[in-house]
Design goal:
The complex is a heterodimer of chains A (about 375) and B (about 625).
Chain A: H1 2-21, E1 27-34, H2 41-64, E2 70-77, H3 82-95, E3 100-102, H4 107-120, E4 124-126, E5 141-143, H5 148-161, E6 166-172, H6 176-191, E7 195-202, H7 210-218, E8 223-225, H8 230-242, E9 249-251, E10 272-276, H9 285-298, H10 306-324, H11 328-336, E11 340-342, E12 345-347, E13 359-364, E14 370-376
Parallel strand pairs in A: 1-2, 1-3, 3-4, 4-5, 6-7, 6-8, 8-9, 9-10
Antiparallel strand pairs in A: 10-13, 11-12, 13-14
Helix pairs in contact in A: 2-10, 3-4, 5-6, 7-8, 10-11
Chain B: H1 2-29, H2 35-60, H3 68-85, H4 90-116, H5 121-141, H6 160-178, H7 181-191, H8 193-198, H9 203-229, H10 239-252, H11 257-284, H12 293-308, H13 321-329, H14 333-341, E1 368-377, E2 380-386, E3 389-390, E4 395-399, H15 406-413, E5 421-426, E6 429-430, H16 436-441, E7 444-446, H17 459-465, H18 475-479, H19 483-502, H20 518-531, E8 536-540, H21 548-565, E9 568-572, H22 576-582, E10 585-590, E11 593-598, H23 600-604, H24 607-614, H25 617-627
Parallel strand pairs in B: 4-9, 4-10, 7-8, 8-9
Antiparallel strand pairs in B: 1-2, 1-3, 1-5, 5-6, 10-11
The chains are: A alpha/beta (about 375), B alpha/beta (about 625).
């Protein structure tokens, strides 16, 4: 059979390729899945760089201790595509024989991967998937970032501390992320006695938001909640000003953190506050060390907090594996009970496998530099 | 001999299909292929279904559709909702869900197709793009489809058996459909829709049929995708996904099913290899940061394809295992003949296409008559009070200077234009307002001033298209090759060859129509018109572009046609030798009015006619004085 021979040949090539990437016998392999190319590569790369930074640290430490163990993360790009993410998962688990998964990055892709991981009981830690349901009923799936509902609550509470009475919302009605955060923000505002004077839906694919913003301006709010990514928020801010929202406070979300890369008038950013998973200018020795190590390795300072959550995800995984060995159930158990010293204090997980950690309220200066304002405690 | 060849081809394909099935089943079950490979194989099969079904609309029908992923989404969400909600055994619920997903997608195809398919080309592309996006937006806003979060927790029911068997069934049915009367009708629309309609093809119905069937297959593929993936999100099914499938069809060759299959296989595996390649390049050359390699490679492939193979990998041709086999076994002929030698020759049932019985007894009345026929295009009265009579078996000429409105009258007679006044009576019945294909079925066939053949089809297929109106087997019978399909196809094959032999063209029956010399193309067009057994044959400048010898031949042919097919002929012609030589009566048209009618002799001496053609002395002197 000619076709069989062809297929076997093809398979042989595929297998050769996979053997090439795994090299040392005492290496413990962790599978990394992230969007490393395409539109969302900034987030994926941040996670990857943060995690790789921790790998350098722990491997050096293990070497010093004379241990023969070394960690390696095999990174596969998912191009922000569900099918690719799943293929990457199967490739890592079935062919690379990884003992745990670090990823995925976007909530949608993570849902597809978490599904497979749960079926296999494969321990998995995401550094950035904020959608609530990701870890629901999946005992082996964890994350090191806070959740969508939580950041909505945090921003509503911060609005209260600012003494705001009237706020408006513009949200993306085609993104469950935006819808979810907007809902929890609205609910918490009501609880806090803050009036929502306008709530307008827009699309993540829009570039012109002036219709919604004009409506909002008519309700004269004191602040505008903008649960969008940086690229959209960078268009909303100037358009809001032209619509007459001159002296309002802009309240963002964690996805807004990369707005500096997109906005042309950075002076608008001084009116912006947003919650982040991590504050790069916090006054802690651990964080300072992290930033200088990061700068040494990559030549730039970290700008997106997923670099930190990625670092923490790798930290949790590596330490749990060192503690419990490489059996799947043991690793899961170790992660569940973990209380490791991470960047922003001791990291522990609640019943829903979410980290018990606080959010950092951040703002910008006129040059686009980020500044830490205040820390919001967990619920 | 021919049947043996077909049998051999079927046998070979079957062996290949079964062999591939068992090979992969064995590899998967033994664990040689991991879930990673399995997932890629599933993706390949699903993409093949999507590509070949899109090929039905874009390749075979020739209409550019950009919303194919929308139908996939409908199928995916429908079937996922059904299997999630329906608590019975998945052995039952999954197939039912797949079919339901396909049916709902087909329904959407129908609803979208009815308005959209009235448009052509770019407009259709834009409107299908829009509808595809509308489907996606609807899904995003419905609570039952999980809104923006999509659906998760779908049982992973897609197995190799399901995906492979469904894929084979769909490919096989598209192949058999393509070789049935329905497939011919669809391809003839791509080749020349005006000619197709005046050959008796209800083009709108066939467009809708092809579009809906493609949507059905896409829906089934969506169902398989949902149950492979386990989680689905409307955002996946955006226009980029539709474009991906279009790229597969274009690269493979529009109209080639095997081409689509090959490109679907290659493009489905590409991202997996690119992943390693990109990582490697980015490691080696950090200066060049590749961000989206897939798009880069796609566009590069398209550009290269446009330069080296503008019609795609296989064009409209099909890769045939039989040809490959023949190639391989040329040296082991003995074995090949072993398979085919002892096949018993069975007596084959044949159904001839019936000759239409025109329900018309009184042959003293004209077969075709126009009464005060007129048409107005806005301010232009293109024809007015035209009264033409055509008796049975008569050859009548319609002449007049350029722009007199001759072809306009033909277009009204065949239903292409709707007259604004007057009546057309065919065999005692008014046909004003009937669609073209209907008029053709009722007895008027025509040829065109500029030849409109189905160029990529063979000569005999061109003629077979015209038997459409008198064949009865359904698309399903065509797909499963039911006895009625075989009987009718054998019948028209015999009739079509007979018809060709009348014109001395039986030798070229299996050559492509566009490779014929000009004179024979003209003949073929007449031949095709006659295949629908008309009572009235309209010839629009049949001698245009012919040399005197060919014209001579054509005159004889027209006479033979009249005698042999007992048909009334109305012809438009500028060649006066031909008109005067064969027409029994002549109508002269000028500025949309009949200015003279009579025998060739009378017309030749009619002052008004001469004036219309050459201008009068009075007019000339008037013009002269005007210019002075």
């Amino acid at each position: 059979m000619k076709s069989t021979r062809f297929v076997t040949m093809l398979l042989a090539i595929v297998m050769c390729l996979s053997f090439c990437s795994g090299a040392f016998a005492e290496t413990i392999k962790i599978g990394g899945i992230a969007p490393l190319t395409g539109e969302y590569a900034v987030y994926g790369t941040a996670v990857q760089q943060g995690a790789d930074l921790y790998l350098d640290l722990i491997n050096a430490q293990l070497k010093n201790e004379g241990s023969d163990k070394q960690f390696k993360i095999v990174w596969l790009d998912n191009q922000a595509d569900d099918t690719e993410a799943q293929n990457a998962y199967y490739k890592l688990v079935d062919q690379e024989k990884v003992v745990a998964i670090l990823g995925d990055v976007l909530s949608g892709n993570t849902e597809a991967v978490a599904r497979c991981a749960a079926d296999d009981e494969m321990p998995m830690v995401s550094a950035s998937a904020t959608r609530y349901e990701i870890t629901t009923d999946r005992p082996c799936v964890f994350r090191t970032c806070f959740l969508d509902p939580f950041q909505g609550v945090v921003m509503a509470n911060y609005a209260k501390t600012l003494g705001l009475a009237k706020v408006a919302i513009i949200y993306g009605n085609d993104s469950d992320y935006s819808i979810g955060v907007a809902e929890s923000f609205e609910a918490q505002c009501k609880e806090n006695g803050i009036e929502i004077v306008a709530k307008e839906g827009a699309s993540f694919t829009d570039t012109d938001f002036s219709a919604q913003l004009t409506k909002i301006a008519a309700a004269s709010p004191e602040a505008l909640f903008v649960p969008f990514y940086g690229s959209e928020a960078s268009q909303i801010l100037p358009q809001a000003v032209s619509a007459g929202l001159n002296n309002v406070k802009f309240l963002g979300v964690d996805g807004t953190s990369d707005i500096v890369a997109f906005i042309s008038d950075t002076s608008l950013l001084t009116n912006m506050v947003y919650p982040d998973h991590f504050a790069f200018d916090a006054e802690s020795e651990t964080i300072k060390n992290f930033i200088s190590a990061y700068k040494d390795k990559y030549g730039v300072e970290p700008t997106i907090s997923f670099a930190a959550t990625g670092y923490e995800a790798a930290l949790v995984l590596c330490n749990s594996i060192l503690e419990a060995g490489t059996k799947k159930a043991d690793i899961t158990e170790a992660i569940k009970n973990s209380s490791y010293d991470a960047l922003s204090g001791v990291i522990t997980f609640d019943d829903h496998n979410d980290p018990i950690k606080s959010a950092f309220i951040m703002t910008f200066d006129a040059e686009g530099g980020k500044h830490f304002l205040v820390q919001q405690a967990p619920l | 001999m021919k049947m043996n060849k077909r049998f051999k081809a079927c046998l070979l394909n079957l062996i290949a299909i079964v062999a591939v099935y068992f090979t992969f089943s064995l590899l998967i079950n033994s664990g040689t292929l991991t879930r990673y490979h399995r997932n890629i194989i599933f993706t390949i099969c699903i993409n093949i279904i999507m590509a070949v079904s899109l090929n039905l609309t874009t390749g075979m029908l020739g209409e550019l559709a950009l919303g194919h992923a929308g139908f996939m989404a409908v199928g995916a969400f429908t079937s996922a909702i059904i299997t999630k909600a329906w608590g019975i055994s998945t052995v039952i619920s999954f197939p039912v869900a797949l079919i339901a997903g396909g049916l709902l997608a087909a329904f959407f195809g129908l609803v979208i197709g009815i308005p959209a398919l009235r448009l052509k080309g770019d407009y259709l592309a834009i409107i299908t793009l829009g509808f595809g996006e509308i489907i996606r937006v609807i899904i995003i806003n419905l609570p039952i489809t999980g809104a923006t979060k999509g659906l998760s927790g779908i049982a992973k029911l897609t197995s190799f058996n399901y995906v492979y068997i469904i894929m084979v069934l769909i490919i096989a049915s598209l192949f058999t459909l393509g070789r049935s009367r329905h497939g011919r009708a669809i391809i003839s629309i791509r080749e020349n829709d005006i000619a197709a309609e005046s050959t008796g093809i209800p083009i709108f119905k066939y467009k809708l049929f092809a579009f809906t069937l493609a949507a059905f297959f896409a829906g089934v593929a969506g169902g398989l995708y949902a149950h492979q993936q386990g989680t689905i999100n409307a955002a996946t099914f955006d226009y980029n996904k539709s474009i991906d499938y279009l790229v597969m069809v274009v690269l493979g060759g529009m109209g080639s099913i095997t081409g689509s299959i090959i490109s679907a296989v290659v493009l489905s595996m590409l991202p997996e290899y690119l992943r390693d390649l990109t990582a490697l390049i980015n490691d080696l050359l950090p200066a060049i940061k590749i961000t989206d390699p897939r798009m880069l490679i796609y566009s590069l492939m398209l550009v290269l394809m446009m330069i080296f193979r503008p019609k795609g990998l296989l064009g409209t041709a099909e890769f045939s295992l039989l040809n490959l086999w023949d190639f391989i076994v040329r040296h082991v002929k003995r074995f090949a003949s072993l398979i085919t030698r002892h096949l018993p020759e069975r007596k084959k049932a044949i159904t001839m296409p019936e000759v239409p019985k025109y329900d018309y007894a009184n042959l003293d009345l004209p077969v075709l008559e126009t009464k005060q026929l007129g048409i107005r295009f806005g301010g232009l009265q293109a024809a007015k009070d035209v009264n033409i009579k055509l008796m049975d078996n008569e050859i009548v000429g319609l002449i007049g200077p350029n722009g007199a409105g001759k072809t306009t009258i033909f277009n009204m007679l065949t239903g292409v234009y709707k007259p604004t006044s007057g009546d057309i009576v065919l065999l005692g019945k008014s046909i004003v307002g009937s669609p073209t294909y209907h008029i053709t079925a009722n007895g008027i066939a025509r040829t065109f001033q500029n030849i409109r053949l189905f160029k990529s089809m063979t000569v005999i297929e061109n003629i077979k298209v015209a038997f459409q109106t008198r064949m009865h087997y359904t698309p399903m019978e065509g797909i499963i090759r039911a006895p009625r399909y075989s009987r009718e196809e054998r019948g028209i094959d015999i009739r079509a060859r007979e018809l060709l032999s009348v014109f001395g063209m039986e030798d070229v029956a299996d050559t492509p129509a566009d490779s014929l010399p000009y004179g024979q193309q003209r003949k073929l067009e007449i031949c095709r018109a006659l295949a629908s057994n008309p009572k009235v044959l309209l010839l629009d400048e049949p001698a245009a572009g012919m040399n005197p010898k060919e014209t001579e031949e054509l005159m004889n042919t027209i006479k033979i046609i009249r005698n042999r097919f007992s048909v009334a002929i109305l012809l438009i012609e500028h060649d006066m030798k031909l008109v005067m030589g064969i027409c029994e009566r002549i109508y002269v048209l000028n500025y949309g009015n009949i200015i003279a009618e009579g025998t060739p002799d009378e017309i030749a001496h009619n002052q008004e006619v001469v004036a219309a053609y050459l201008g009068t002395a009075a007019e000339e002197s008037k013009e002269e004085s005007a210019t002075c």
